[in-house]
Task: inverse folding
């Protein structure tokens, strides 16, 4: 049995969505680590701004803190995630957290991976934000591909993945299921 190298981008500034997308897509694209770039995500965010029906209500701070990302540090929102994955023929389904992780079919044929949006506190709780994390099954083993980790962390069994997901939900996190489009 051939052991494949697991690609894992590390966190830089607030580009966790960029890192999470590349970690998630590592095995589905020939280009692997070059799946998404900052330029591509910025272009997606800018296109979303042009199509935004509420852009008349912007303030001067909107030049830096744009509706879908921060131009200096990244920090992209869910609209960028969905549009980016749709460009790679993936479908994103928001998981109803009222059902808990037990309703997620981790061995489903169309499930490509899971994107998490987790609340975080840094600097002694002075800074609050959210962090994007990818989970994916590779070679039949589920991995936490969090860019804040030093390396991908394998889960021992599916029940451990579901416990982790239930913990994310209980902490106010969101689960987005990434599905392969059927052709």
Result:
């Amino acid at each position: 049995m051939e052991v494949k190298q697991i690609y894992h981008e590390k966190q830089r500034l607030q580009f966790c969505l960029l890192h999470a997308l590349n970690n998630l897509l590592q095995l589905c694209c020939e280009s692997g680590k070059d799946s998404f770039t900052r330029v591509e995500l910025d272009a997606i965010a800018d296109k979303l701004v042009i199509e935004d029906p509420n852009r008349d209500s912007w303030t001067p701070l909107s030049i830096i803190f744009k509706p879908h990302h921060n131009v200096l540090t990244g920090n992209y929102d869910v609209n960028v995630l969905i549009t980016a994955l749709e460009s790679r023929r993936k479908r994103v389904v928001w998981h109803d957290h009222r059902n808990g992780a037990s309703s997620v079919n981790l061995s489903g044929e169309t499930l490509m991976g899971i994107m998490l949006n987790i609340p975080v506190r840094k600097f002694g709780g002075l800074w609050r934000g959210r962090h994007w994390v990818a989970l994916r099954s590779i070679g039949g083993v589920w991995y936490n591909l969090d860019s804040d980790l030093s390396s991908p962390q394998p889960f021992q069994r599916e029940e451990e993945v579901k416990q982790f997901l239930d913990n994310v939900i209980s902490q106010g996190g969101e689960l987005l299921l990434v599905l392969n489009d059927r052709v």
